[in-house]
Structure prediction request, 107 residues.
Amino acid sequence: MRVTAIIKQVIGPVLIRWLSSTTFSASKVSVLSTGAILIKAANNGRLKIRLKHIGSSGQVYLGDSTVTVADGYRIEAGTEWIEDRTTGAIYGIASSGTIDVRVIEYE
Prediction:
């Protein structure tokens, strides 16, 4: 097991998570262009999450519940986003129409 830590300053409690996954779940979400859609709810047990834009065109923008195409993190068609630092809820909005996103969450 490899543990890497960079500590600059600690104020208050420290959360340490081991980077080994015991389970994962897969799901499909249809992201619309009419408003932010909840892609994955907050999960304190999440170690990593992968989101893949399955469509052949358009973009999906990620963020919080107020995400828009003007301020979200963009995922292009056919690409994926991998995150191992957030346990918070993830929302998305499509650039146009409806875009299918596949999700794998590791716990």
Remarks:
- Residues 1-7 have pLDDT under 50 and may be disordered.
